[in-house]
Design a protein that fits this description.
By secondary structure, this protein is an all-alpha fold. It has 6 helices and no strands. It has a single domain, classed as Up-down Bundle (de novo design (two linked rop proteins)), CATH 1.20.1440.20. It is about 80% helix and about 0% strand. The radius of gyration is 24 Å and the shape is rod-shaped.
């Protein structure tokens, strides 16, 4: 009789552990998905601001057609990558978009009237604020991915995570090594 109670106790502990592990994985997966949603919101905000910014610059620098086309193409590529949902591809296209926006701002530097335009300044501030929010959302997402992946890889959770179909998530990373380097400042 005692052996039966001990056996039931062990089985009960295993069941409680399985439930706690499963619920922990679900919680971490949902947090990671929520963090991805935060990135998505900020990227959509950025996509909405870019056409307005391009139009503001076009009014002053109409002959810079190639720059506008590159920004538009990069924006389209980023939107299409986001629909695919692959963080690596989204990161790649977002980095491309960020590069074309830098070129757009460099063009704007050549037009003093544009730099003084209230509409342009407001759009530039909003885009800068959005870029900061995207960076914060990326850090938050990557922190959640780290926690989720760590839990998936630790023993004994890894034994049941695979059976239950949990897969590791990808980090949202910079693909180009040049973007990791500090810029050179020359006077």
């Amino acid at each position: 009789m005692i052996i039966l109670w001990v056996l039931l106790g062990v089985v009960g502990l295993i069941v409680v552990w399985l439930i706690a592990t499963y619920n922990g994985l679900i919680t971490l997966r949902n947090r990671t998905d929520e963090a991805w949603s935060d990135i998505d919101v900020q990227l959509k905000r950025r996509y909405d601001l870019i056409p307005n910014l391009v139009e503001a610059v076009k009014g002053y620098a109409g002959h810079e057609k190639e720059v506008f086309e590159k920004v538009t193409l990069a924006r389209s590529a980023a939107i299409n990558a986001e629909k695919g949902g692959n963080p690596a591809e989204i990161a790649k296209t977002e980095n491309m978009l960020a590069g074309t926006l830098k070129t757009l701002f460099a063009v704007a530097e050549n037009y003093p009237d544009l730099k003084a335009s209230q509409n342009f300044l407001q759009l530039q501030d909003e885009l800068s604020d959005t870029e900061n929010k995207v960076q914060a959302a990326r850090r938050f997402y990557n922190g959640n991915v780290r926690d989720f992946n760590t839990k998936l890889e630790k023993f004994p959770t890894n034994t049941i995570a695979g059976v239950l179909g949990f897969k590791s998530k990808q980090f949202f990373e910079i693909e180009e090594a040049a973007q990791r380097e500090a810029p050179a400042v020359k006077f």
